[in-house]
Amino acid sequence: MGDTDEQGGELTHTDESGEAQMVDVGDKPDSERRAVARGTIHLQASTVAAIRSNELEKGDVLATARVGAIQAVKHTWETIPMCHQIPITNVETDFELDETEVTLTVTVETTGKTGCEMEALEGVTTGLNVVWDMVKAAEKDGAGQYPDTAIDDVRVIAKEKQTR
Q1: Which CATH number characterizes residue 90's domain?
Q2: Which residue from 39, 34, 38 is spatially nearest to 117, judged by alpha carbons?
Q3: Which Pfam family name is an example for this entry (predicted)?
């Protein structure tokens, strides 16, 4: 038998000998699925103000991060080894700007045999990495470090499945 997970159930990505495997979802019925993930990047107040007023040298930070997030959602199966390629039916991105934070929420929808939470997580992490890339000149200190910049609290906040 394969390894068990923390709840005592079988792990789905290993075979009986413990080798990695892709889960066979062929017999599962199609269902409408939705996943929502969220994460935050902490920045200097001056950087968030520059994002708001679109005054950063590299261009429109949120528009670029939105494209990056959507691109990541569509390519999750290429970067996470055991993920299935799924038909993405919708992606929504929502940015919330606080004084020293940008929070990104990514909602992914699909109709298929497996969930889309990994796609939502990939959208969040890539979107926030794009923000970091776009603002890094403003965030660096005199030594070229990022003492105020951090990405955290990345998590799935909702996962839904509705069988047809």
Answers
A1: 3.30.70.640
A2: 34
A3: MoaC
